[in-house]
Design a protein that fits this description.
By secondary structure, the chain is an alpha/beta fold. The protein has 15 helices and 17 strands. The protein binds iron/sulfur cluster (SF4).
């Protein structure tokens, strides 16, 4: 049996954040009800493949999955239950304003054991700038409730957009509640987003400075910087994402979801009407798919492996692909090793802290 993950996209939000570039529609209970029906039918279309898989993790992302009510959560997990064993990592993304104890009870009951909270900031001025609908106090209440209910939880933070922000003060507030995991995202300013009317472009140098400040702060507090954008207390790394970075296959269900099955990467339609029509016609809602050949797998292995602090194992590379990793002789690559952006030790090639931030430039030379 092949080990695989499951990703499910819930593309509904109460209000669009000013920086958002994701596929997301305005929340409407009836629309969400219909969407859950469609999702259940999409999952059924894959039941043969699901039954042949050893499901190792589930991730429900968005959008805002926490807009689902308890009945909708029950219906979704009622369908999924047949395909996985209890005890695997089941993550559910929530936004602070749309959870409370009752909903968290429903999630627990449904088998969710990991909560990822979209905090983004613990300062009301920054939250307003980002166009989030929650305030600092709503975020803290949500973190507190999740923590008190004994969930393994992660929090998302956005950085790199305000030189006057006291990011360590915000992290101090957050760490009182001992999240096991923290994910960082640099703010990106998309041309047609609302935030582009408030900020023209990101000052990369400042964003790098803030990234280093946060990294050092979290490392000093005992978090491992186990992936370019992710920090965790040892043993609490995201299993779902780690499997993804190691090139494991996964099902992708829902509007605009991506999946990777039988060496084929596929993408579902981002169009709500087409998604509905295709599923009602018992057709998988795929609009793009591409077979990943061995050469492409090698590139993905390098690209994804370098995101992890452990880096790429040169021995594992040789075992997988039946040939030596030959990029080290390349002039451009040795230049990065000499400058300390790439580190080679104990048979692993990995990025240094500085290299993490310049990953895209380094990858150009490695691929
Ligand atoms: S919660 Fe996420 S998906 Fe929804 S509008 Fe905000 S950034 Fe976009």
């Amino acid at each position: 049996m092949k080990s695989r993950g499951i990703y499910i996209h819930i593309p509904f939000c109460k209000k669009r954040c000013d920086y958002c570039d994701f596929t997301s529609f305005k929340y409407d209970e009836v629309e969400v009800d219909k969407y859950i029906d469609l999702l259940i039918n999409e999952i059924k279309l894959y039941s043969g493949e699901l039954l042949k898989s050893n499901i190792t993790s589930i991730y429900i992302g968005g959008g805002t999955p926490s807009v689902l009510n308890c009945k909708q959560i029950d219906r979704l997990f009622g369908e999924l239950n047949a395909y996985y064993d209890k005890g695997i990592e089941v993550t559910f993304e929530v936004n602070p304003e749309s959870i409370d104890k009752e909903k968290l009870d429903c999630l627990k009951e449904a088998g969710v054991n990991r909560i990822s909270i979209g905090v983004q900031s613990l300062d009301d001025t920054e939250l307003k700038f980002l166009g989030r609908i929650h305030s600092q106090s709503v975020a803290i209440d949500a973190i507190k409730t999740v923590s008190e209910m004994g969930f393994n939880f992660s929090t998302d933070f956005i950085y790199g957009f305000d030189k006057n922000r006291d990011i360590t003060l915000e992290l101090d507030k957050l760490l009182k509640y001992k999240p096991n995991h923290i994910s960082l995202y640099p703010l990106e300013v998309y041309q047609d987003s609302k935030i582009s009317t408030k900020i023209n472009e990101i000052d990369d140098e400042y964003a790098f400075y803030e990234y280093k400040v946060i990294s050092k702060y979290l490392k000093d507090k005992g978090y491992e910087h186990y992936e370019v954008s992710n920090f965790a207390i040892k043993g609490f790394e995201s299993k779902h994402n780690s499997n993804y970075w190691r090139g494991m296959e996964y099902f992708g269900f829902g509007i605009s979801s991506h999946g990777y099955l039988n060496s084929v990467r596929y993408e579902n339609t981002p169009n709500k009407n087409n998604y509905g029509k295709m599923i009602e016609g018992s057709e998988k809602p795929i609009v793009n798919e591409s077979f990943i050949n061995t050469e492409e797998k090698k590139l993905e292995y390098i690209m994804l492996g370098l995101r992890l602090s452990s880096g790429i194992s040169l021995i594992d590379y040789e075992k997988r692909f039946g040939e030596k990793f030959d990029k080290l002789d390349d002039k451009a690559v040795s230049k990065h090793i000499e400058s300390g952006l790439l580190l080679l030790d104990n048979g692993y090639l990995r990025l240094s802290e500085e290299g993490n931030y310049q990953m895209n430039n380094i990858l150009v030379d490695l691929l």
